[in-house]
UniProtKB/TrEMBL annotation, chain B:
<dbReference type="InterPro" id="IPR019546">
    <property type="entry name" value="TAT_signal_bac_arc"/>
</dbReference>
<dbReference type="InterPro" id="IPR023753">
    <property type="entry name" value="FAD/NAD-binding_dom"/>
</dbReference>
<protein>
    <submittedName>
        <fullName>FAD-dependent oxidoreductase</fullName>
    </submittedName>
</protein>
<dbReference type="InterPro" id="IPR049386">
    <property type="entry name" value="FCSD_central"/>
</dbReference>
<feature type="domain" description="Sulfide dehydrogenase [flavocytochrome c] flavoprotein chain central">
    <location>
        <begin position="165"/>
        <end position="277"/>
    </location>
</feature>
<dbReference type="InterPro" id="IPR037092">
    <property type="entry name" value="FlavoCytC_S_DH_flav-bd_sf"/>
</dbReference>
<dbReference type="InterPro" id="IPR016156">
    <property type="entry name" value="FAD/NAD-linked_Rdtase_dimer_sf"/>
</dbReference>
<dbReference type="Pfam" id="PF07992">
    <property type="entry name" value="Pyr_redox_2"/>
</dbReference>
<dbReference type="InterPro" id="IPR052541">
    <property type="entry name" value="SQRD"/>
</dbReference>
<dbReference type="InterPro" id="IPR036188">
    <property type="entry name" value="FAD/NAD-bd_sf"/>
</dbReference>
<feature type="domain" description="FAD/NAD(P)-binding">
    <location>
        <begin position="34"/>
        <end position="149"/>
    </location>
</feature>
<feature type="domain" description="Flavocytochrome c sulphide dehydrogenase flavin-binding">
    <location>
        <begin position="355"/>
        <end position="421"/>
    </location>
</feature>
<dbReference type="Pfam" id="PF10518">
    <property type="entry name" value="TAT_signal"/>
</dbReference>
<dbReference type="InterPro" id="IPR015323">
    <property type="entry name" value="FlavoCytC_S_DH_flav-bd"/>
</dbReference>
<dbReference type="GO" id="GO:0050660">
    <property type="term" value="F:flavin adenine dinucleotide binding"/>
</dbReference>
<dbReference type="GO" id="GO:0016491">
    <property type="term" value="F:oxidoreductase activity"/>
</dbReference>
<dbReference type="Pfam" id="PF09242">
    <property type="entry name" value="FCSD-flav_bind"/>
</dbReference>
Amino acid sequence: MNLRNAIVVVGLAGVALSAQAQDPNLARNLAATCANCHGTNGNSLGGMETLAGESQKKLLQKLDDFRTGEKPATIMHQIVKGYTPEQLDLITAWFAAQEAEGDEQDAE
Amino acid sequence: MLSRRDFLKSMGATAALGTVPGFANAAGNGARGHVVVIGGGYGGATAAKYLRMWSQGSVEVTLIERNASFVSCPISNLVIGGLKQIEDITVSYANLQSKWGVKLVTDEVTAIDADKRTVTTAKNGSIAYDRLVMSPGISFIPGAIEGLDGNEELVPHAWKAGPQTALLRKRLEDMPDGGVFAMHIPRAPFRCPPGPYERACLVANYLRQSKPKSKVLVLDANGEIQSKKGLFTKAFEGYGELLEYVPNSTLRAVDARTRTAELEFDTIEADVLNVLPPMRAGEIAIQAGLPLINDRWVDVDWLTLEAKGVAGVHVLGDALFPAPAMPKSGHMANQHGKLAAAAILNLLQGMAPNPTPVVMNTCYSFVDGKNVIHVASVHQFDAASGKPMPVDGAGGLSPSANELEAKAALAWAKNIWADMLA
């Protein structure tokens, strides 16, 4: 099952994307909701994966694997289900465009 | 009174455009103005940093905080349980100034004039703002428990991290083996729903190892455990007779000197008495006359976090009347800080706020020195109700307490403290 179908199955009642104009900084704002754990702009200080500079394809694949249970997780399988496919597209594209800082951000 | 221009001038070169290391080209994002942030906790410090970062330095930010450094409430139960030191949960505010160009003012706000857009401080006079962010945390409702007011040295709350945390730890260290540690949990809502139950576990964990004849008595005004109920019930069972959980235990009065708790139907003498008093929004929010719900929590517009009917005053964190299923947590306050920062930068440019904001929460609790449980949720703005609503089918709990999440909890702390302050 691909990511998009999975989301349709899970269902996100009441959070259908607004027809209103999208905020010009929507991707940045959405990505910032990940920064508590994954570091400002996706640069983790350790213990969580750095997202900055990762390819969008790889990030989307990981998220899909969390959603389906393919990749075991303590918490990400629950969090990923809170975002729409469009939001995950925006978030992953934004992190892919960030520069990773330093050498020591890999998950421990 | 210092005019805004004089004040900005007085902020000196560190905050001047182009000299802040984070901003290679300091053209900014078009937003201009001066934002004053009251309170450097999880909400306020995040808002201050993100306003500077996202405006690329074009918006001036002043953070007024009464304490010289940040001390975290999350992880503070590990200090009380003897697993961490107070230094481990203390972080400097210095980077906000040196790296992000936030003007730091260590002071107390005494008054707010939302019409004139000024705040008055105890030592630094009056400061003008274009937009105000208030992240005032919680305060304890005066007179709610007879005999408690003014006795926080004798009956520590340790529900604001800092000297109270160290004090409660000291009381536990001084307690004889065979002593009774009694804690009281007020009726919900209160800051950090799982926090009291985590504390009970970590105190029991310490006593089991160091003073095994002692007892932890959890006196809960609520009818049941308020967060992660099944997981905490299991953890409590693991402590056997060392820990007793007593629901529906409303505390009416204390005798601070004898550490006696008077419940509705019982009187308990404790060796260490830890009372979490009934809570409401931080003092300055009450004093400023912001609109309150139930006389306790600030009513806000969820697209901007502006207090209802008070233009230009944005309120964050535990002080808010929460949206459905939204916890009063440090993580959530950090998310509020980013939501408000984005909204303020739009408003300062004459743009509408983001119509589809998202916030999310994760909260880890230690049930002993090695095992942790979490709760998580994602909240999407719902235009029909005007509130962020928890997404059905998303979020959830740990299946059981586990060691893997203890690592995650500490990594969470390191990363969120950096997200606010580094």
